Automatic annotation (TrEMBL):
It comes from Mycobacterium parascrofulaceum ATCC BAA-614. CDD domains: AdoMet_MTases (cd02440). Residues 1-75 form the Methyltransferase type domain. It comes from the Bacteria. Signal peptide: none annotated. This is Methyltransferase type 11 domain-containing protein. GO terms for molecular function: S-adenosylmethionine-dependent methyltransferase activity.
Amino acid sequence: MDISPVMINLATRRLAAWAERAKVVLVEGTLPLPAEDGSADRVISTFVFDLLDVDYARDVLDDLRRILTPDGRLCLASLAHGDRPLERAVSQVWTGLWRVAPQLVGGCRPVSLTALLGDDWQIHQHSRVHRFGLVTEVVIATPNSRHP
């Protein structure tokens, strides 16, 4: 699902070999997302949550929980805060630019996926990729059975 027709066309072409299993859908960004409860065994989201308002991001995660099968996997990648000196400086400058003129940084800013997921999700894989002062956080999680 994406709000961009360009991204929908790219994803449709790239997923053509798996057309029977993978669905690509243009959406408007409103919730609930157009998918049946428990209809997806995998949801992959790359560099989306760093664009979303925190409250809306949590609402999206709740809706993704609804869409996933009980043993389904949520796979996320996002721009993250740095933990090394250069990365911290880059994160601070990036966040400052985002606050003043978000269009200069494509509307995205460093976020913590693990903080967004909180106790509602069980994290199975967590890694951070460090390149050129930028950090990408990658998480694979399943809905926590303790969550209503």
